[in-house]
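User: My collaborator sent over this chain with a note saying "see what the structure looks like." That's all I know about it. Can you take a look?
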Amino acid sequence: MNRTWRFLPVVALALLMFGASVATATSVQKFSLQELTKKSSAIVMAKVEDSYSRWENKEIYTYYTLHVMEPVKGMKGETSLTIRQLGGRVDNIESIVPGMPKFLKGEEVVVFLTQKDAAGYPWVMGLQQGKYTITSDANGKKTVRNELGDLTRLLPDGTTDKSAKVSGELPLGAFLDRIKTDLNESGKVQVDPTTPTE
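Assistant: Without extra context I'll predict from the sequence alone. Here is the result:
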């Protein structure tokens, strides 16, 4: 996994002066929405409440606390969860891992999560592939979209996926219905994922 360290602001100034670039890409296996749904240990719709970064074993990790608004898979009865990932900023040192999802305090998301790691924290499945941002229009209608950023997805034949880095916006209700249909929940009415619902 590619990782970039920044010693701010000295290195940032040097990069500006010499035109060097620290941005690289991370390559991971491509997951379809159905694959994310089936492989994830948990899927939740949540709101980002807080975050902090700290050093652990010579690496910087960032911890995000999310308020669970709706458990879609697993996590029944849970009201909050903490996820962790590599990278973050501590004092004037920043560790950047391309392809890691970025979370902003107050944003609403649908996240696909792995099983808990040895330290007891889940990770986002497939890096940025497993984070969908929820937005609202002027009328309050909610939609979701996935932004891959600098993540490169590998296809089974070893080639890279050339599709758009930002998915089209889908109505939140239709998106959740599609996930629940893929999960084949007991008693859930099967829906056509190509037909938007409110």
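A starting point for your reply to your collaborator: The chain has one domain: 4-183.
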